Amino acid sequence: MLTDFGRIFIFFIVGAIFTAGGLMTSWLFRPKRYYPQKLSTYECGEEPIGDSRVKINVRFYVVALIFVVFEVEVLFIFPWALIFQKVGMFAYLEMLFFLLILIVGYAYVWAKGDLDWDKPIPVIPQLSKLLNNKS
Asked: Are 35 and 63 contained in the same domain?
């Protein structure tokens, strides 16, 4: 008679055999035609130019994190909106408090300037400055 742990052990053994069998089957039947382009770093046909460790502006990560925060907000608001009439006034006030926290966070990020991108200031030549510099 098997105990519960014995059944779990048999389940893991069957899972390992199933996984190993799948890997062995794919190894046996896959095409083995190696050529230089296939073994290159990039299969798109383009040669890499420069170093692959390029410094990426941290603003991309900040915007991505802010996007994730507001996506999580939608994940919380959508189920709440579906049962809004059933949950009553307490849940309504909780959601208002939750939205207030998010709005304060959004205002902080905006005031800190994390949502602003560096935009070059256009230099417009003025005739008076050009005439004064040439004299």
From this structure: no
